Each structure stands twice: as C-alpha cells, then as structure tokens.
Amino acid sequence: MKKRFTSARVPGTGMEQLFSTPARWQAWLDVEAALARAQADLGLIPADAGKAISRACDLDRLDSDRINAEIDRTSHPLMPLIVELARAAGDDGGWVHWGATTQNITQTGDVLLLRRAHTIICGQITDILTVLADLTERGAEMIMAGRTHGQHAVPITFGFKTAGWIDEYVRHLDRLDQISPRLFVALLGGAAGTSASLGEDPGTLQRAVATDLGLTPMAVPSRSISDHFAEFVTVLGLIATTSGKIAREIYQLMKTEYHEVEEPVPAGTVGSSTMPHKRNPQLCQDIIGMTAEIRALVPLALESAISEHDADNAPSALFDVEQHACELTADTLARIHLIVANLQLDPRRMRSNLDLSGGMIASEAIMLRLGETIGRQLAHEVVYDAAQTASTTATSFTDALAVDPRMTSQLDTDTIKNLLQPDSHLGLAPAIAHHQAIRAREIVVSRREN
C-alpha cells in the first residue's frame, strides 16, 4: 500500500507487516503443522513423521530464496513451499501435505492472518471509543447549530453530534464480534471438498486441525464457499462509511467560513507552497479518500465470492481484496484516533455561527409554543411568514414577529425572548451526549477486561 505524505505523524498499525509474504508463508506452515500433528494422532501418518513435519514448519528453517525461485519457475503459490518443507522434514518429508489441496492450506492460513487483522481493528475501534467518550463529554453542553440539508435547523450540542459517532462504532464492534464464528473457520476437505483423501473419519481430522489452530471446521468444506469473506469486507465498508462521514464533517466544520473545529495541525506543517497561511485538513482528506476506496472494494468482494463449479481462482482474488481493505481500514482508524484525540473545538465560533440566522434557528420552539393556543398549522404559517420576511427584506426575524398581531396576541415579549435563546430548545441533546460517553467507557472497560 502506498505511503502517504502524512504517514510520519500517524502511528503504525502493524497491518502491512501482518500481510507480508513471510508472515503469510508462516501461517500456511502453521496449518501444515496442525495437519501433520492431527494426522499423526489419528494414525493417518507415522507419529515420527508428524513430529518431524511439525518441527520443520518454521520459515527460518527453510530456504526462502529457493522457494521464491521455484515459484517463478512453477507459477504455483504453494507447491515450492511444500517441496522445501518436505526437504526440511528429511526422511519423513513424503508425508507432508498428505491428502490436502492447496486451498485447504492457503485459505486456512489466510484466516489466521485475518483473525489477527480483526483483532487489530477491534482494538483500534475500542481505542477510538475511549477518546470519543472524552470528546463527547467535553462537547455535551457546547451549543452549536444543527444543520439539515445544508441549512440551520435547530440548536444541538457538539457532544450530541459525536454521540452518534459512538453509537455507530459500537455497532461496528458488534458486527465484528458477530462475524467471528462465521469468519474464523478452517477449510479442510481435499480436492473438491468431499474429503475423500482424508481417511476413514475426515470429520474428526477436520475438527482436530481446526481446534489446534483455534478455529472451527467449515460445516461444508467446499472450496467454492466464500460468502463469509465477502461479509467481512462489507463490514469493513460500513466502518469506512462511518469513518468517512466523520472526516467529511470535520473537514466541513474546519472550513474558514465555519471554523468550529480543527484537526491537529502540528507546528511546521505546510499547507501550501504558495499560500503560507493555509492550515489544511490533511488527515481528513486522507480518510475521505481511503474510505471511498474501501467502500469501492465491497462490490469487488461480492463479485469475487462467485466461483465456477467447485473451485477456481476467486478465493485468491478475494483475499487480495480483504488484505487491501484491512490495510486501508487500519490506516483510516489510526487517523480517526489521532484526529478525535486532538480535535480543537471553538465554542465561541459555534455560537457566532448559530446567531447568523438572527434567531430563526428558534423557529420550531416558537411555533410549538404558539401552537399550544392557536394550533400547530396556523402557528407554522405565522412563524413562516416572519421567517420569509426576514430572509427577503431588511426586517429582522424578531421584528417581524413583534409586529404580527397573531403572535403578539398570544405570546408576550419576554416569552418570545426566552424562546429565542438556543439553550431553551436543546431537548435531550446534552443528556444523550453524557449517556453515550458513559456507555463508550463501559464498553471499553468490558472489552479490555475480556
């Protein structure tokens, strides 16, 4: 994956190293070792062979240069590794890979890597919940303009906005937990999944290998089944949707015209070669681009889950999608954490922006109070007329209300003045923010204890 110019200030995730070729080969060797041990225990291969093969399943004991050279010569991803493993196992090398086919080893080994990737991503989201709880608590009472369809709507608090981010990330953790038993499965069914090459009791062998690796066996060990991998990419796509939305929101609120928040801009950061004043939302722009790419991988994963007959190259193509999605997701979440943990808030700018509508942001509150005496629809018309007058003439919203007898006959000046105060119409916004901050912290504690 390409290195971004912001990478130097973003903590590493370990995801790229996780999917390195040596790491992948070692995962495949781990499966070969588990297979040999299980077959030896069940009497399918000699006990000494099981021990010798298991000992030899260490990449440091193999000749990686020879493996690479043979991959170039044979155009096969696993056979050169099997041959080198057999050489390292000595006289017992003839029992290596007994009854298995390539995909049994590579797919199951890749699942071991995906499990580690899954752990990294869950850990990152948990860490994000920690800093989101702090941010949400900090902004719980911080009044700002709620905006719908790009226009002022009603007053909210910044913490209410971030409470929604907590809620989404919690659901993503739930999804990741729920997918685990479907995703972390071992494929061991031989050439076409029938297990004809795996002895008299292949079910026991499959369970033994899976248990050794901390997995569960596939109920139907068919090489054409890949929906669980596509599901994982889809969940990563949903995480990308939330993360991209957060980055887009901060990007918007960081604009000069708003400037209600600012992502961290360390001293020395340059925004432009020709405009020295620029403080660009570089991390948010990274996230917006990366999350678009992750979401674009979802349909590719769905396409790659379609294979012809009982096996083809689709699972290999699907793993490439999974790897890329995992790397991009980890990179995205690292930036989300960095932004949220260091986000600068400007409550004075939030308040000044809220006042731009001249009180019209309180129109719903005024309409509802007036509606208690004259009905909601007529009250809507009264406040609507005042708002349109204020929007199209030099008359202020408050002055337009003050000269309308339909208003003044029902509500006195002090009542209208109080209704125009943004904090009079916040509803549950602060309470929801406080609650979600508590909820996030409780979830973090629970996950770290487990």
UniProtKB/TrEMBL annotation:
<dbReference type="InterPro" id="IPR020557">
    <property type="entry name" value="Fumarate_lyase_CS"/>
</dbReference>
<dbReference type="Pfam" id="PF00206">
    <property type="entry name" value="Lyase_1"/>
</dbReference>
<protein>
    <submittedName>
        <fullName>3-carboxy-cis,cis-muconate cycloisomerase</fullName>
    </submittedName>
</protein>
<keyword id="KW-0413">Isomerase</keyword>
<dbReference type="Pfam" id="PF10397">
    <property type="entry name" value="ADSL_C"/>
</dbReference>
<dbReference type="GO" id="GO:0044208">
    <property type="term" value="P:'de novo' AMP biosynthetic process"/>
</dbReference>
<dbReference type="InterPro" id="IPR008948">
    <property type="entry name" value="L-Aspartase-like"/>
</dbReference>
<dbReference type="GO" id="GO:0070626">
    <property type="term" value="F:(S)-2-(5-amino-1-(5-phospho-D-ribosyl)imidazole-4-carboxamido) succinate lyase (fumarate-forming) activity"/>
</dbReference>
<dbReference type="InterPro" id="IPR000362">
    <property type="entry name" value="Fumarate_lyase_fam"/>
</dbReference>
<dbReference type="GO" id="GO:0004018">
    <property type="term" value="F:N6-(1,2-dicarboxyethyl)AMP AMP-lyase (fumarate-forming) activity"/>
</dbReference>
<dbReference type="InterPro" id="IPR022761">
    <property type="entry name" value="Fumarate_lyase_N"/>
</dbReference>
<dbReference type="GO" id="GO:0005829">
    <property type="term" value="C:cytosol"/>
</dbReference>
<feature type="domain" description="Adenylosuccinate lyase C-terminal">
    <location>
        <begin position="358"/>
        <end position="437"/>
    </location>
</feature>
<dbReference type="InterPro" id="IPR019468">
    <property type="entry name" value="AdenyloSucc_lyase_C"/>
</dbReference>
<dbReference type="GO" id="GO:0016853">
    <property type="term" value="F:isomerase activity"/>
</dbReference>
<keyword id="KW-0456">Lyase</keyword>
